[in-house]
Amino acid sequence: MINFEKKVLGNGLRVILAPMDNTEAITLLALVGVGSRYETKKINGVSHFLEHMFFKGTKSRPEPGQVLRELDKIGADHNAFTSKETTGFWVKTSAKDFDVALAVISDILLEPLFKEEEVEKERNVIFQEIDMRNDNPRLKTQENLENIVFGDQPVGWDIAGSKKTVASIKREDIINYETKNYLSENMTVAVAGNFDKEKVFQKVSRAFAPVKKGKNKNFVKAKNFQKETQVKIFNKETDQTHLALAVRAYDMYDEKRYALDLLSVLLGGNSSSRLFSEIREKLGLAYYVYSWSDQLKDCGYLGMAAGVPHGKLSAVVENIVSICSKIKKGDISKSDLDSAKSYLRGQTALRFEASDEIAHFVASQELFYNEIKQPADILEKIEAVEKEDVLKIARELFRPEKFSLAVVGRHDKGEKTNKFYKKILASL
Fold first, then answer.
1. 230-425: CATH topology
2. How many separate helices (H) and strands (E) can be counted in the chain?
3. What pTM does this model have?
């Protein structure tokens, strides 16, 4: 059970305090409800660009690198991240150094300088980051998959943007985006670890009181354009072929997401799963093979990925289709389902041992659901899932016209190849 208390500041910003007795660490997370799907095509990548710029100087810490050096002095773990729907900034440190963590995080969010010369420097850094992602075929395959699944709309664009869009982003674009989206009702601040609740709340309250009141309004609802199997081959000189399959599934508010999580575990969630047992252990066709589910505000998908020898791509796709088809036809036992539930129980127990995990959990719960469910409440929903519930969504999702396939490797990307893999997927 997570011990927590929620408080709301006068400006509407929500603060979640989660004290823990069994740790000497403390994590501070500021989570903002904005990400790449809130952008326009012209400035795709601005959320991620802005995340970088917050660390490039503030009024009280004007020199580049000063912010990070201050955190390094106390031996803190720290990072920031941008997703399709959130941007987060966190510091994990010893409890005695909380004041430093709070001072830095509040400072970068409230007093950024966004110097023109630093914008240009960071633009080049982001170019390198995009190149790095493009050079990583495993990462690029998943990005390609999401581009295919969601299409040309905000939820389907790359989080970092392209070199073309990043090159066109101006300093004023960054400032305008920050002004419109970094607002009090669009932000949660979570503190988890070893601390006194009242003292910490007073400090957080003073630090974040200046955040401008308001909430962003430029959310674009996702559309589903897919009417048939989608296949895209990206020819690239790689050591192995990387593939990713997906079906559009459920959003984070759909009750069927609990059955989906169990289906994902059964399919490829661990080393006892169907994909791992069949494709890696029995056939030796892949080093990595797994599945996952991704749920956003109004859409989601179930994904599967593998790294395979170039000449075994078709065999692996055929085996994945076969495994999905068997599940769809009822190849799930009560024992299988019980094992998947037990796995999720164990993973949940391990997850909530760390202050950073608890901070992210409570902040996300509050931001998206306006309430914080206990992990036990979520597990209760999972425990209530029956075998027929999993089979029902398998029958609903595992249909040829719902599948998308992305491949990166030494393969012909012509129409003939596309038709070949569409035919395999049509056998579901």
1. Cytochrome Bc1 Complex; Chain A, domain 1 (3.30.830)
2. 16, 11
3. 0.96
